[in-house]
Amino acid sequence: MKKQFKFIGRHLVLLLLAVIWLIPIVWLVVTSFSGYKGINTAHFFPQTWSLDNYVALFLRPDSVVQYKKWFANTFVIAVFTALISTIFVLMVAYTMSCMRFKGRKQLMSFGIILNMFPGVLSMIAVYFILKSLGLTNSHIGMIIVYSAGSGLGYLIAKGFMDTISNSLREAARLEGASEAKIFWKIILPLSKPIIVYTVISSFLVPWGDFVFAKLMLNSGISTDWTVAIGLYNMLNKSLVNKYFSIFCAGGVIVSIPISILFVIMQKFYVEGITGGSVKG
Amino acid sequence: MNNKFFKAVGNYFKEFGTAIVKGDIFVKLSLLFMGAGYFARKQIINGIIMMLLEVVFAVMCVGYAAPNLAKFGTLGTVQFEQVFDPLTLTSTVNDYDNSFQILLNSIIALFLIVVFILVYISNVKTVYRLQMDQKEGRHINTFKEDIRALFNEKFHITLMTLPCIGIILMNILPILVLIAVAFTNYDQQHMPPSALFTWVGLRNFKNLFTNSATITFGYSFTKVLVWTLEWAVLATFTTYILGILLAKFINDKKTKWPKFWRTLFIIAIAVPQFVTLLLVRNFFGDTGIVNTICANIGVTDFLKNIGLVSKSLSYIPFLTSPGWAKFMIVMINIWVGVPYQMLIATGVLMNIPEDQIESARIDGASSFQIFRKITMPYMLFVTGPALITDFVKNINNFNVIYLLTQDVFVTSNQALANSNAKEVDLLVTWLFRLTNEYYNYKMASVIGICVFVICAAFTLVTFTRTIKGDKEDEFR
Q1: Least CB–CB distance from B272: residue in A111, A208, A269
Q2: What would the pLDDT profile of B133-187 be if each residue is shown by its tens digit?
Q3: Chain A residues within 8 A of B122 when measuring between CB atoms
Q4: Which of B255, B278, B455 sits opposite A232 (nearest CB)?
Q5: What pLDDT is attached to residue B436?
Q6: Is domain A55-165+191-279 classified as CATH 1.10.3720.10?
Q7: Which residues of chain B lie closer than 8 angstroms to A10, CB-CB?
Q8: Measured between CA atoms, how close is B82 to chain A, in angstroms?
Q9: Smallest Cα distance from B86 to chain A, Å
């Protein structure tokens, strides 16, 4: 009897915690179906229900809401960022993990220190450098911002490649394979999990980034924006009472693909982190 | 380690010296014409490439480096002027100096010059090695073989080139610019192109630690710094401990459907942070829904009675009064951070050697004792370095603070407001608003350097562990 009591208690606690964690999400979803456009301050659930926010989001673009355009912009930026970042990360990871050359350790240490320098700090300088190249307010500029320095994030991928057995590469070398061939034909196929992780995590960057996008895309032309700044703009004091529910609808739509990718990525993230450190 | 470093540098120049002294006429000619040594050894294409490089560098020096570096000392002297000609109805702009362009171009030029010198030195060494190879009858690579080497034993050069260029452009160059700006008076009154800015030495650093009637940066800096560290400690440890506890709770054998519970928590963090944080900000707004509910069930009055909410307010200032805002930020950060930690801890917990726990249990240890003596030490051992990384990340946790308090929190502290800071600001958010809203680049750069020093200090702790104790070859 006492055991049963404890069992129920344990699950009640979990349930309570889960509710706390899900309240904001539930609020987001129900408000996105609200018939009232502003913030509902009196009731948790909307009084009138409607699909109008989603209709407005996709079918009635105006000077504030350009959701389809934002989504397309962010998608294009994200695809290129993922592509370039993944290539860079894999190149650096392979070099650091599999090749031996003078100055390798120094280069690695330097990379780690450099990576600790928060991007927010040098942001202004980045902005001016891109401005002098004429790349602010352009999506190419955004892709450069997100992917150019990505080689520094090589550690997880390197940790993974460190676990691939040496004998494979040695055997290939004995048969006359060049280093490039080993990279391409042996290491890359074996690194699939970490490639998936790198692709997804760099793909997610432009969707979640807010700081750089706000700084770089500052023309005020809403069709240039990414989803993050577009949605942030809706909460402007002068707009929030007309657009809050639409903001929620936009949040729901962007969350669906992102959370699916996030869940897939987490699996690899945990593997990467624990795999590396436990064995070491 | 320092000794080793100086030795390496010494060797570097010694080799260069030997090459010059012992090299034949072609090696010496290479000092002037970089390709000479290659032509002598029939590496025609290498020679042409080196000659071209030299020409390009010379052109760069004359056309780009020299004009910019000449003005580097003053950062420009010609003020922007616009003259309107009433006859032709056009305005002409004089040939003005843009201080920022001069600064940026000079740094790039200096960088290129350093790179060229390195290439130059290694070039002389290479042609000397070619001379030795020839003398001793070793094989000298043809151009084709050189290319092939780039995909074989020199593959690392091929792989690293592009990522390094990217890192130099996006990481190193901006940091250099940032450091330089900290020594200038670049702010709203000195904004190129319409105005010039110039070097001011250490004045900005002095200002950061000055506290007077007009300059309150000293006061603000201390306050913001203290809160930044408090926040980093609180945010790191609350999420870490609670994450582990949650993971243990869910993974316990007595819990049914662990996967289901885990998924529920993951859903909460899978939604992009800017969406949830902006939403939560409105959730806890002064006229927001939580306030309505609290007023209805009497929580607001209760808090007023025990003095946690000022009597003059009709709402709970969740994100608008300093004390409440700090509390809420930490709480909301727990909400954001615990599921992440839970995920990581789950992975680690699954790897704890089962037999240790089993034998402890047989010896009669309570589950609390097991947690304290086995689980926690193990967790700390595995995730210790990550803990310090998290701490540094939290020092720079821009999103949580900015998204929750921007446009909502207004400071009433005049001294803070004077230097554009707020009670809830971290160093990074302060820096961001200084640049983005007040164009005070000089102070932002100084603060940036301070943050870097703080982060670097903490990083060095982890760094020595991860690099020095690197066991990369052990498990192969």
Answers
A1: A208
A2: 888 888 888 888 888 888 888 888 888 899 999 999 888 898 888 889 999 988 8
A3: none
A4: B278
A5: 81
A6: yes
A7: 249, 252, 254-255
A8: 22
A9: 32
**B192 in the same domain as B232:** no
Q: What are the structural domain ranges in chain A?
A: 55-165+191-279
Q: Does residue A256 belong to the interface with chain B, where contact is any CB pair within 8 Å?
A: no
Work out the percent of chain B whose per-residue pLDDT is above 70. 96
Domain end residue (candidates: B201, B232, B262): B201
Across the interface, whether the CB atoms of B170 and A148 are under 8 A apart is answered: yes
What average pLDDT does the segment A13-26 reach?
90
The total number of structural domains that make up chain B: 2
Verify that B410 and B448 share a domain, yes or no. yes
Residue for token pair 């001793």: B136
- Owning domain of residue B459: 207-284+319-468
Assess whether B235 and B144 both reside in one domain: no
Q: Which residue of B has its CA nearest to A256?
A: B271
Question: What is the C-alpha separation between B186 and B188, in angstroms, rounded?
Answer: 7
Of B167, B201, B235, the position where a domain reaches its end is: B201
* B366 shares a domain with B222: yes
Q: Quick check: A116 and B459 CB within 8 A?
A: yes
* Residues B222, B122 share a domain: no
The CA distance from B296 to the nearest CA of chain A, in Å, is 10
* C-alpha span between A104 and A90 (Å, rounded): 16
CA A103 to chain B, closest CA, distance in angstroms equals 11
For residue B383, which phi and psi values (nearest 5 degrees)?
-100, 5
Is position B474 within any domain?
no
B279–A94 C-beta distance less than 8 A: no
Residue B70 token pair: 């000449």
**Local confidence band at B253 (pLDDT 50, 70, 90 cut-offs):** confident
Is the minimum CB–CB distance between A103 and chain B shorter than 8 Å?
A: no
Q: Which residues contact B402 (CB under 8 A, 6 or more apart)?
A: A211, B429, B432
Interatomic CA distance for residues A102 and A100, integer angstroms = 7
* Digit-coded pLDDT (tens) for B74-97: 888 888 888 877 777 787 888 888
The interface residues of chain A toward chain B in range 56-85, judged by CB-CB distance below 8 A, are none
DSSP per-residue letters across B63-98? IIIHHHHHTTTTT------EEEETTTTEEEE-----
Q: Is the reported ipTM for this assembly greater than 0.90?
A: no
How far is it, in rounded angstroms, from Cα B370 to Cα B283?
40
Longest alpha-carbon distance in chain B: 101
Residue B212 lies in a domain: yes
